[in-house]
Specification:
About 25% of the residues lie in helices and about 10% in strands. The protein contains three helices and five strands; from the N terminus they run ααβββαββ. The strands form two sheets. A three-stranded antiparallel sheet has the order 1-3-2. The protein has a two-stranded antiparallel ribbon with strand order 4-5. It is globular. The relative contact order is 0.18.
Length: about 160
Amino acid sequence: MAYFDIAEAFDKALLADDVQENSRAAVEAARAEQEIVDRYTDLLSRRPLGVDYDNVFALDDDRGVFLRGYNSDETLATGYDATRADWTGFAAAMRLAIADLVSHRIKAFDADPGVTSETRGARSITRKGPVNKKWPVGWSDPLRHYDVRQTVFAIG
């Protein structure tokens, strides 16, 4: 099992309509989940001040995932429920982040970066500059309340 299962109707409905039947969706979901975990993984030996280490999931002796509520076994994650529609908290946020990444990546993969205007049904899209095929703006919004890494501020 995983945080996102394309075979589950509830999870599939979180994807953009034109992505739901894409053959790459399951592979992209697994890849997105692993890459999100990698983004929040850091060395435990750094021990930065202000980090609540009780909320860090240790992957091994050297590395930990700095997401409150995360567990590599999603059935032990905060907010897990046997019924996927009843997931709350971290489990629901992780699933939303994965769905957003999968929808974005599949659409971006199929997009021609040379196209400046494109119409999809009633919507029209205009691109100004390169398309970020991997990490869209706001991809981590559902997870921001679960990030236990210290925010760095500088006053200069």
